[in-house]
Automatic annotation (TrEMBL):
PANTHER family the UniProt entry points to: L-RHAMNOSE ISOMERASE
Protein name (Swiss-Prot/TrEMBL): L-rhamnose isomerase/sugar isomerase
Record flagged with keyword Flavoprotein: no
Keywords: Isomerase, Manganese, Metal-binding
The enzyme's E.C. designation: 5.3.1.-, 5.3.1.14
The keyword Nucleus is assigned to this record: no
Source organism (scientific name): Rhodoferax ferrireducens
Broad class of enzyme this protein falls into: isomerase
Family matches, as InterPro entries: L-rhamnose_isomerase, L_rhamnose_iso, Xyl_isomerase-like_sf
GO molecular function: L-rhamnose isomerase activity
Amino acid sequence: MTTTKIAPELIADHAHSVSARVDSDYKHLGEQLARRNVNIDTLKAEVAKFAVAVPSWGVGTGGTRFARFPGKGEPRNVFDKLQDCGVIQQLVRCTPTVSPHFPWDKVSDYKELRQHAESFGLGFDAVNSNTFSDQKDQPLSYKFGSLTHADAGVRAQAVAHNLECIEIGKQIGSKALTVWIGDGSNFPGQSHFRRQFERYLDSNRQIYAALPADWNMFLEHKMFEPAFYATVIQDWGSSLLAAQSLGEKARCLVDLGHHAPNTNIEMIVARLVHAQKLAGFHFNDSKYGDDDLDSGSINPFQLFLVFNELVDAAQSKAPNFNPAYMLDQSHNVTDPIESLMTSAVTVQRCYAQALLVDRTALTGYQDSNDVLMAAQTLKTAFHTDVTPLLQKIRIEAGGAADPVATYRASGYRAGVAAVRPAAGPSSGIV
């Protein structure tokens, strides 16, 4: 039996209060789409299948290098995190899995952890290793790198941690390991670029060899930070080189905030699909660097364009195309649960809009070099308000028509704040 933290009666009452309006809006949207030869019920069935994972670390308050301002009722451990993730899934109905991060989420009994997740109707997505920060009682430091460190002992320690993550993942039902490292250099001459990359490959070959047959290895790149001069896996090119060197189970993960400003991320999608190396996405938004803002909060059209490529790849049956989706955001000034719910709905919205692209017409415009109409074909889909469709999907699945309003009405945050001790303020960078 699934445990619920928001009273089902509250959700049902809210749904009942808006059902007439939602039905009317859904019917009206259906009439609009019918004129474009789109059956709204067929579209609804397809969109209802969409799922995006929630990161365990995302339900806590984030911060900057200067300070962190803890929120009320922050999760104290992974069990609290799963409870918060359960609330998100209960209301939005498209976040059925959680991506854990180790050693932050380590426990003594992983069978218990899996059962706890299942009690909230949740499963586990990819497991994430952490060799970008030192942990308590860790014998060797990652200050100057981990998988690429000049010291073989440090590299062995980092490899061992990743192997441990695989073993944990097998116990909780995961099927992938995500590897992101902050290794790089802060000064010219600090590191030998080629030897550093070769050490990265050598370390990852040892990890890759331990993957179960049905697992994948997700390699995540990032342009900068914490290394501000050069990063070992700084872009999709380095990631692709590494994935191709490691083997078929190694794939390239794309975080939307890990690129230089104005990077054409949707083209990166197309290139990785072509190479059969697209692992999936960490969804967020970015203004300057890796801001980890809420998905679609700055540039929803870019998010739509990413999904346009993803849907095109799926519909054209691109080989070895099975991307994994996850939200990865830092919530510094908002309630993390509210931000994650809003982002999940935004990502689902862009997926639905991408399904509305008239691909036959688009291909014709592209082949005839009708630039304006090709662009307008995408804009027509993007400007379609699919809100009634998403509300209908959530209501029929037992979720909330308006997740944030229902969440606030439930008093959940005040309730957990009463039992979870307040965290102290951050000391910042000094």
